[in-house]
Amino acid sequence: MVKVTLVKFAGYLVKYLYNKENVLEGKYMQTQLSDFVNLQTLTEDLIIELAYATPNNFTGQVVYDFTTAIARRGSVQKLAEASKILKKQGYRIKVWDAYRPVSAQLKLFEIYPDPTFVAKPNPNFSHQKGVTFDVTLTDLAGKELVMPTAFDD
Ligand SMILES: C[C@@H](N)C(=O)N[C@H](C)C(=O)O
Fold first, then answer.
1. Which residue's CA is minimally distant from atom 1 of ligand 1?
2. 109 pLDDT higher than 70
3. Is the beta carbon of 136 within 6 A of some atom in ligand 1?
4. Which ligand 1 atom is nearest residue 128's CA?
5. If exposure means fewest CB atoms within 10 Å of the residue's CB, which of 5, 29, 79, 136 is most exposed?
6. Per residue in 20-70, pLDDT tens?
7. 119: DSSP letter
8. Which residue puts its alpha carbon closest to atom 11 of ligand 1?
9. Ligand 1 atom closest to Cα of 125?
10. Does the pLDDT of residue 2 top 80, yes or no?
């Protein structure tokens, strides 16, 4: 009985110290920032043109049926920061893809089952987790800059 209680107490102590350290180091920040937000609520300068919401992508098909770009708050804040810096230099960011549901990823992977180009369906990864963007740059009027390849080439 005493042994069990002591083990339990040790468990609580380890948990307490672990949590205390994480709070002090700000590691819980990510959890607080993990909610999803609309990209355009954090910056109006972004141009949103979700390619997989149209047939104008490498599949030739509509992959999902929404046109609002969302992602995790922390990632959107970083994108907004980059957008601010680029605007001062005369550029805007055009977003071709942000959060992508696992069902959409499954569709992409079925069409192109090459994990070096399309990630395997996994809610904890990249677009499916809401922490990745497919982007290009435009001038301030919204004209795309010439890039070495087109989207997804
Ligand atoms: C398909 C391409 N736009 C892409 O997003 N690839 C990465 C690897 C992904 O599927 O997460």
1. 118
2. yes
3. no
4. 11
5. 5
6. 444 434 444 444 456 999 999 998 999 999 999 999 999 999 999 999 999
7. P
8. 119
9. 11
10. no
**Which is the closest atom of ligand 1 to the Cα of 109?**
10
CB 121 within 8 A of CB 128: yes
Does 19 have pLDDT greater than 70?
no
Give me ligand 1 centre to Cα 27, in Å.
28
Look at the chain and report how many structural domains it folds into.
1
Instruction: Provide the CATH number for the domain around residue 35.
Output: 3.30.1380.10
- Assigned domain for 46 exists: yes
Q: Which domain holds residue 46?
A: 10-138
Looking from the CA of residue 151, the nearest atom of ligand 1 is: 3
Sequence-distant (6+) residues with CB within 8 A of 62 are: 52, 53, 54, 55
Say what the pLDDT of residue 21 is.
43
| CB neighbour list of residue 76: distance below 8 Å, 6 or more residues apart | 37, 39, 42
Quote the ipTM score: 0.98
Residue 11 vs residue 133, higher pLDDT: 133
Establish whether residue 126 lines the binding site of ligand 1, counting it when its CB lies within 6 angstroms of any ligand atom: yes
The pTM of the full predicted model, rounded to 2 decimals, is 0.79
71 has which bridge partners? 37
